[in-house]
């Protein structure tokens, strides 16, 4: 960085969304820098794992539309990088057809109308067909399944490396171990933001920019509160992922695709939303990831994370599910476990919006863009494009009202709750 240099955009957060944003900004020839508080490809946020789902089955019509739109953007990214970032093995959703309205994944059958509207392939399966194709057993006879082939597994670590490489190839600057402490207006120019940072935990460095993109995930309030006096009310899940050993060999355990089970909570009110991945071509052999789509540890701030403790209840729930319903997977001891931070707001949707003008302390309207929350890995190329367009052009077709920072839920806005998005000075 040259002394006095002013960037067109500073991106705060070097995860997949931040890197995708930098890549899109740099492609236009604009000057952009990414600031990551840890090293790149770290385990402190949401991208700590080998795989994430790319799926198109959504209950909400607008999310189904965005999923379809993102498919072509993934194709573009793979062509640009000459890299296969997804394994399109398909997705099986199955379970109780009457369950799921208030679950994070929506309902089981509602996506069908959107698949048909968008002319996307799917196939209904009976329990007998599911148990013939997948190593499941003893599923309730009245359950049903939907298989959609236009879904797949994202290679998370390869995606991160690819986005960083592409962004730098187009001229983006990147700084790791650079923690943003505060963003404030320049005293000499009210159209310029100063990003005050500490590098390597000791060296103060100031970066200047016309526009700011805050894409720091669960850490978003660490930037918003000192800079603009506001916080989003977040419910951050410490999501546990378990990998279990499975039978090897030509007659071993084979899951032909990703899968997700829809079922109501058990008598102890423990979630029965389970999901799994097949053995990954880029992962260790003869292990499969199976986990519950819930979290016992829920926190308000990443500093409260129990980094050395994986919740045993979440692991136990998964082990019991495997014992009852899966053949050929050893449930006794996981091969390995890990956790990541899943950031949520009251409706499980994104926050994709500008910081409202009244909180900018005299700064230019629509000059600070925020993204956080939601289940976003499958939308990374789309979100990168959206944030770049919002920063450079003042708008994006993807910045829907459902993602507004100030949208209201059905609770008292003065109540501090994990289920309400609100501002506080």
UniProtKB/TrEMBL annotation:
Gene Ontology MF annotations = flavin adenine dinucleotide binding; sarcosine oxidase activity
Highest taxon in the source lineage: Eukaryota
Keywords associated with the record: FAD, Flavoprotein, Oxidoreductase
Domain FAD dependent oxidoreductase, by residue range, is 8-390
Q: One Pfam family this chain carries?
A: DAO
- Return the InterPro entries for the record: FAD-dep_OxRdtase (IPR006076), FAD/NAD-bd_sf (IPR036188), MTOX (IPR045170)
Question: Which cofactors does the annotated protein need, by name?
Answer: FAD
Q: Which family does it belong to?
A: Belongs to the MSOX/MTOX family.
Under what name is this protein listed?
FAD dependent oxidoreductase domain-containing protein
- Whose protein is this, by species? Orbilia oligospora (Nematode-trapping fungus)
